[in-house]
Amino acid sequence: MSEPRRIYSIDIFRGMTIALMIIVNNPGSWANVYPPLLHAKWHGCTLTDLVFPFFLFLVGASMRFAFVKWHYFPSKKFYQHVFWRTFSIFMAGVLLNAYPFIRQDWDWSTFRILGVLQRIALAYGISACLIIRYDFKQIIKILTGLLLLYWGLLWIGGSSNPYGLETNLVRRIDMLLLGEHHLYSGFGIYFDPEGLLSTLPSVGTIIIGYLMGGMLHTTKNYNDCAKRMAIFGIAITFIGYVWGFIFPINKALWTSSYVLFTGGIATIVLSGLTYAIDIKKWKSLFWLFEVFGTNSIFLFILSGVWTKTIININRDLGGISVNAYHYLYKTVFVPIGGDLNGSLLFALSHVAGFWLILLWMYRKDIKIKL
Questions:
Q1: What average pLDDT does the segment 159-176 reach?
Q2: Number of independent structural domains in the chain
Q3: Please, are residues 306 and 353 in contact by the beta-carbon 8 Å criterion?
Q4: CA 44 – CA 336 distance, rounded (Å)
Q5: Does residue 249 fall inside a structural domain?
Q6: pLDDT at residue 2 is higher than 50
Q7: pTM metric for this prediction
Q8: What is the mean pLDDT of the segment spanning 222-232?
Q9: Least C-beta-crowded within 10 Å: which of 13, 228, 273, 286?
Q10: Secondary structure of the chain as H, E, C letters
Q11: Cα 7–23–164 angle (5° rounding)?
Q12: Which domain holds residue 337?
């Protein structure tokens, strides 16, 4: 099989996304976070709400090049590869939810089944099976159909408030199929932002990335490609924004307007990186992010394991027992920067620490793939 070539701008974009993910996932205190580093409470889109769709967009862009070795042919080996990759990423998410495994207070009746890695796995598996079978024109039709279908399902299947937290169809389906106690409870009620039905439009995010990866893969003129990507990105960002007035931009529901809005922004960013790297040749300026662009799923798992580990270690702080996560924040970073800036410094220290781990792996050419 021929090995796929790599596009540096995609690797850099992935590295930037992973670095931002670490910052937004690891504040010293959730009570002290700058607003752009928090998710929108429900409708709306912040900088943080771009992280996950950016990653899925890049999954799609990378698939265009990864599928070269399969000659874009839906063979039995291809489907076996997709199945086992989907299964391994999904199970990694389940195991991450279960970690730490040695606990005396497990209540499996409230174990969360879904999650970020599970969403990535399912969206990847569905997208791969579609992309390998259809050409670009057909894929665009599928994308359009998916987004309109999802809009219709939520509208018809909802109540008088089809996009509300308590009344949306995504929640109702997850409660029916999984049981409410197996869903995420961080919204104050049982509702999973990585729900089964909302995986459908997330496939659309991957497809947009795949289409942009196709533009990069087939272009003979990066300058022209960057311009076309920028125009396309601006267009779908605008369409998503306008659509949002009747179908709100909402990450938790992964609404169709959110798909276009965030996919458009991702396309604009990739266009800018293509201009900077492939046209202006400013490659050396982005080397720090190149390191972050390697072993991205491994890093997501590592960061989750690290956080869960130190949360489950208790330390004494002024006669009060607190977890090691809070202890580090209060004793190291608050004295340096205060509550708010100390919280940001805590997150940035994680960026630096994980970067050093990935740098070592990068130099040793260690690549862990699921």
A1: 94
A2: 1
A3: no
A4: 33
A5: yes
A6: no
A7: 0.94
A8: 95
A9: 228
A10: CCCCCCCHHHHHHHHHHHHHHHHHHCCCCCCCCCHHHCCCCCCECCCHHHHHHHHHHHHHHHHHHHHHHHCCCCCHHHHHHHHHHHHHHHHHHHHHHHCCCCCCCCCHHHCCCCCHHHHHHHHHHHHHHHHCCCCHHHHHHHHHHHHHHHHHHHHHHCCCCCCCCCCCHHHHHHHHHCCHHHCCCCCCCCCCCCCCCCHHHHHHHHHHHHHHHHHHHHCCCHHHHHHHHHHHHHHHHHHHHHHCCCCCCECCCCCHHHHHHHHHHHHHHHHHHHHHHHHCCCHHHHHHHHHHCCCHHHHHHHHHHHHHHHHCCEEEECCEEEEHHHHHHHHHHHHHHHHHHHHHHHHHHHHHHHHHHHHHHHHCCCCCCC
A11: 95
A12: 8-363
Any domain includes 32: yes
User: How confident is the model at residue 1, as a pLDDT?
Assistant: 45
- What average pLDDT does the structure give for the chain? 93
Predicted local confidence at residue 5, as pLDDT: 55
- For the stretch 21-76, pLDDT in tens is 999 999 999 999 999 999 999 999 999 999 999 999 999 999 999 888 877 778 89
Q: What is the pLDDT of residues 97-133, one digit of tens each?
A: 998 876 656 677 889 999 999 999 999 999 999 999 9
Whether 189 is covered by a domain: the verdict is: yes
